[in-house]
Amino acid sequence: MTEALKQLRHYPDPGYGELRHALARHHQLSADWVLPGNGAAELLTWAARDLAEAGTDCQLLTPAFGDYGRALAAFDVTVRPWPLSLTGMDSPDLAASWLEPKATSILINNPHNPTGRLFTLAELEPLLERFATVIVDEAFMDFMPPDRQPSLIGHLGRYPNLVVLRSLTKFYTLPGLRIGYALGHPDRLGRWQRWRDPWPVNALAAAAAIAAVGDTAFQRCTWEWLPSARESLFSGLQAIAGLSPLLGAANYLLVKTTTPAPLLQERLLRRHQVLIRDCVSFAELGVNYFRVAVRTEAENDRLLTALRQGIAV
Ligand SMILES: Cc1ncc(COP(=O)(O)O)c(C=O)c1O
Question: Helix-strand-coil percent breakdown of the chain, rounded to 5?
């Protein structure tokens, strides 16, 4: 990024050639199947406009990341909720009664935020046949090594109705930089490019993204660290009376709590300067859930101590 400061004297390449090639190489695709954006959030906007132009109702797996609602509402897309069971972590069932016949598009998230649920390719493949447009947000997929990722990227060539969204926010801890990308049929991505501002990705974000996807040492280090750190945080949470964590595949865990989450949040913040994410913004979850990040062993221990004391009060 220091190197790239020199580029700030110029507009970025509006075609983002170097960035698109780096991302395409990373996924073994050709560059015209890649569209970088100002975070996955920007690309959700164009996905929503696409759905609106096709006049489809959108089946939305819920609970859902809040920004989906923002994007879909911006273009008056009718949302048909598809509730995910939080107890059994069941598979999406295409025969289920709540599957709305009028919904010809679907927006799904894998791994799923906030549950951490990872859908298999066998569970997702029928969606590609059932829906005219399938948007899969894989913002957290990088947390698994490539040979373990049930990503639909490998299906793009066969399914022009599929769009995969990726983000550098989560895996590379770069939320302030705003960089994500869409992978999809060049005709669709070309349409999105024509709709939007000419330079949605700044030169520093483009340079950082090229460096990040090439940083295989960092990627390996995260893949080696995460599973055991998550497992030990999961066991620690499970051992606290009143807490029931859900086993997830991402870098966070959703936890069911008998003590209302906003109360617990305030206690932890006041007494331990630890902030847990309450899930009040997810209508289906309310006050009985919170979400925590998997962090270093010392930080996870600090969180567990704080929770133990916060619950015992
Ligand atoms: C599921 C999911 N998708 C996308 C995003 C947004 O990603 P970005 O920062 O790339 O816009 C988030 C952020 O919380 C998220 O949880």
Answer: 45, 15, 40
Structure-token match 């913002």, residue found: 139
- Whether omega for the bond prior to residue 186 falls within 30 degrees of 0, making it cis, is no
Domains detected in the chain: 3-214 (3.40.640.10), 217-312 (3.90.1150.10)
Is 66's C-beta closer than 6 angstroms to any atom of ligand 1?
no
Between the CA of 141 and the centroid of ligand 1 the distance, in Å, is 12
Q: Judge whether 9 and 203 are in contact, CB under 8 Å.
A: no
- In this prediction the pTM is 0.95
Residue 12: CB partners within 8 Å, gap ≥ 6?
199, 201, 202, 203, 206
> Which pLDDT belongs to residue 261?
97
> What is the per-residue pLDDT for 93?
56
User: Across the strands, what pairs with 182?
Assistant: 35, 165
Block means of pLDDT (10 residues each) for the chain, length 313 residues?
95 97 98 98 98 91 95 96 75 60 90 95 93 97 96 98 98 97 98 97 98 98 97 98 96 97 97 96 94 97 97 85
User: From the CA of 124, how far away is ligand 1's center (Å)?
Assistant: 20
Ligand 1 contact via 113 beta carbon (within 6 Å): yes
- Tell me: cis bond preceding 63? Omega within 30 of 0 counts: yes
CB-ligand 1 contact for 12 (6 Å cutoff) = no
How far apart (Å, rounded) are the C-alpha atoms in residues 257 and 243? 5
Asked if residue 235 lies in contact with residue 260, where contact means CB atoms within 8 angstroms, the answer is: no
DSSP notation for 23-34: HHHHHT--GGGE
- Ligand 1 in contact with 139 (CB < 6 A)? yes
Angle 208-211-212 from CA coordinates, rounded to 5° = 80
